Amino acid sequence: MFNYRDQADGLRRIMAKTSARIISVIGANGQPATPWMRNLALGMLAPEQRLLLIHANRQPALAHSLESIVTHNSALKRAILKHPQGYDLTCLAENDLLTSPLSQDLKVQLDGIVKQLSYDYDTVMIEAQLDTQDHSLMMPLIAEHELVIQMDRSEAAIKAAYTTIKHISQQHGQIPLGVVVTGANHDQGQQYFMRLNQVCKQFLGVTLDFIGAMPLEEPAGAAQKKTGNAKTEVAKAGQTALAFKSVAHRLEKQRITTPSLAVA
């Protein structure tokens, strides 16, 4: 975690004009993808690498949100939590953004805070969401970096993803978009991705990137109840972890070149 009492490293990064790699993830329906995002963060975490996961709404483990830091002019460190699994954790807003959308002024302030934080980490992952009022992304910087859409293997997900991509392209223009299909093996995921990509190219002029597919995650203990074999459950958990690692590796290989936040 970034040492807030010794900001020399952050200062060196600012002077060198380097900031974190920023990856945002959004659900096919334009809403956050909370549990899936945490697993992806673990897949992206590497030794000696600092990763910050930013949830959309406040989580039980967090005492403060970045919104509360802005509102009460509090110290930024109060909103950052060291997660036991090795990454840092924070969130943007106090409440569900579906019922309590952020004002434009607050979005701009949060955008500035996240840009500031980006100098203290190697990777920043943001749980993105569309504004319920104008269907824009929560913060401008999300549209300046990598955005991944998570969709399941269903007809409804293809329609929802298309609608979300349409809103994004209308509000932010042509930005790089990747897709991960969950509840699918690689071949199944690729088939659903190709169908989504075809309609997006035809009707929106948008070309997507296929990041990968993830197997269906069963609730804890479900596999053991079905088979009576704990080894089967452990094996499936291992396969899921490998799938997240594979997606993380593909993201690492498929870095999208965009201007640094610092070089503007």
Q: What does the model show?
A:
- Residues 1-6 and 256-264 have low confidence and may be disordered.
- The radius of gyration is 19 Å and the shape is globular.
- The protein has one domain (8-253): 3-Layer(aba) Sandwich (Rossmann fold), CATH 3.40.50.
- The chain has eight helices and eight strands.
- By secondary structure, it is an alpha/beta fold.
- The chain has helices at 8-15, 34-44, 66-72, 104-117, 155-172, 186-204, 222-227, 230-253, and strands at residues 21-27, 51-57, 81-82, 88-93, 123-127, 146-152, 177-182, 209-214.
Quick recap:
This protein has 264 residues and is α/β, with parallel strands linked by helices.
Secondary-structure map:
Layout: H1 8-15, E1 21-27, H2 34-44, E2 51-57, H3 66-72, E3 81-82, E4 88-93, H4 104-117, E5 123-127, E6 146-152, H5 155-172, E7 177-182, H6 186-204, E8 209-214, H7 222-227, H8 230-253
Parallel strand pairs: 1-5, 1-6, 2-4, 2-5, 6-7, 7-8
Antiparallel strand pairs: 3-4
Helix pairs in contact: 2-8, 5-6
